[in-house]
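not sure who needs this but someone in the group chat was asking about Gibberellin-regulated protein 9 from Hibiscus syriacus so here u go. i didnt clean anything up, its just raw.
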Amino acid sequence: MASKALLFLLATLLQLASEVSSNEKEKRIEMKYVKVPEPATPIPVKAPPHPAPAPPVKSPSPPYKPPTPAPAPPTTTPPYKPPSPPLPPVKTRKDCIPLCGERCKLHSRTNLCMRACITCCDRCKCVPPGTYGNREMCGKCYTDMKTHNNKPKCP
C-alpha cells in the first residue's frame, strides 16, 4: 500500500511539473508574437500665409577657362662645329713631340703623359686630337696598348 501511495505521489508530481513547463512555453510563445503598436502619424505643419520673396537670381557666369600657355620658344640647335682638321702625318719620333705636347698640356702629370704619349705615337704613328678621349680615332694599336698592370698605356 505504501508503494501505491508513493506511485500516486510520483505521478502527481510528474503531471504538475509537465503542466508548469507547458505553461512557461506558452508564455514564451505568446510573448514572441506580441503586436507592436504602429507609430502615430505626424501632424502636418502649416505653411506661412505669404511665402518669403526669393533672392534675386544672378545670371550664370561663363565657365572658367584656364589661360592658354605661351608658345614655347623655338629650339635652337647649337652652331655646327666642323670636325677638327686631320693631324699631320707622323713619320718620326720628333713629329710626335708637338702633338703630344698639345695632348698632355692639361694633364696633372704632364711629364708622365708626355713619355707615354711619345711611346704610343712612335709605335702607332698617330696621336688622337684634343686633350682627352678620341682614342678610337687612332685605331686598335693605340687603344689596345697596355701597361704591365694591364691598364691602358696611351693617354
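also Residues 93-144 form one domain. if thats useful
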